[in-house]
């Protein structure tokens, strides 16, 4: 299992709704000073909001730049509420208890399964970054996903930065503080991948299930 420093900023795609005291607010409509409701239920003020635009000039962006789509209900219990699009390196909370205590952060690209967590080819995308007064875990479409963490990369948020255009998850090395450890492989990640497969299989089974007492001829008719 690999843990330790992980230097990827966290990016939400335009339209992603963040849980705040004002309700579920699209990330591009958030304001500095808004209070986010974190995964633990704490209220934290938004200290900074940044964004960057990536454009492939009509061609699909490089796979490292393409957002990851988490389908509705992919994590069970109806989470996320609707399609959630994150940058590939954006960590989500895994293995926490019912109150979202404990657990670890796993970059969403480590959970791609080709069914409910998929890479989304796009020709352009705008990534948004939400920093709180201290590092914590936001609720994006109901799913716990970490807030922005400052690794010294604010200068790379300009569209004029070639590095930013080629790597939406870039953060300068040297910063390793987070509210939870980050895990990118090993038993915890494999267990979560298996759990997501079980959630998908269960949902598929429910969709294919007929009501008791209903015969094949009823459906054929």
Q: What is the percentage of strand-forming residues?
A: 25-35%
Mean pLDDT: 84
Q: What's the main sheet like?
A: 4 strands, antiparallel
Level of helix content? 10-25%
Number of domains: 1
Give the name of the CATH superfamily.
Answer: Hedgehog/Intein (Hint) domain
Structural class: alpha+beta
The CATH topology assignment is Endonuclease - Pi-scei, Chain A, domain 1
The name of the CATH architecture is Beta Complex
Q: What is the number of E strands? A: 13
Rg from Cα: 19 Å
Number of helices: 3
Taking pLDDT < 50 over at least 5 consecutive residues as the criterion, the unreliable ranges are 2-7, 158-168, 170-175
| Amino-to-carboxy terminus distance | 54 Å
The CATH class label is Mainly Beta
Mind explaining what this structure looks like?
- 14% of the residues lie in helices and 27% in strands.
- It is α+β, with helices and mostly antiparallel strands and 221 residues long.
- It has one domain: Hedgehog/Intein (Hint) domain (Endonuclease - Pi-scei, Chain A, domain 1).
- It has a four-stranded antiparallel sheet with strand order 1-11-5-4. Strands 7-6-10 form a three-stranded antiparallel sheet, with no helix packed on it.
- The chain is globular and about 45 Å long.
């Amino acid at each position: 299992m690999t843990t330790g420093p992980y230097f990827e900023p966290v990016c939400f795609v335009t339209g992603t709704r963040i849980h705040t005291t004002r309700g579920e607010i699209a990330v591009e409509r958030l304001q500095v000073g808004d209070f986010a409701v974190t995964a633990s239920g704490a209220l934290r003020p938004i200290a900074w909001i940044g964004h960057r635009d990536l454009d492939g000039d009509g061609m699909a962006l490089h796979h490292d730049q393409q957002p990851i789509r988490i389908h509705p209900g992919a994590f069970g219990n109806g989470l996320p509420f609707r399609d959630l699009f994150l940058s590939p390196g954006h960590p989500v909370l895994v293995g926490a208890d019912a109150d979202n205590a404990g657990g670890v952060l796993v970059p969403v690209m480590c959970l791609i399964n080709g069914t409910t967590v998929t890479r989304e080819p796009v020709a352009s995308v705008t990534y948004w970054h939400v920093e709180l007064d201290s590092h914590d875990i936001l609720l994006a479409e109901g799913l716990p996903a970490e807030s922005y963490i400052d690794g010294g990369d604010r200068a790379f948020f300009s569209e004029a930065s070639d590095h930013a255009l080629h790597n939406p998850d870039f953060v300068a090395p040297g910063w390793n503080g987070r509210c939870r450890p980050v895990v990118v492989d090993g038993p915890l990640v494999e267990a979560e991948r298996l759990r997501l497969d079980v959630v998908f299989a269960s949902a598929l089974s429910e969709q294919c299930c007929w009501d008791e007492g209903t015969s094949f001829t009823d459906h054929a008719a």
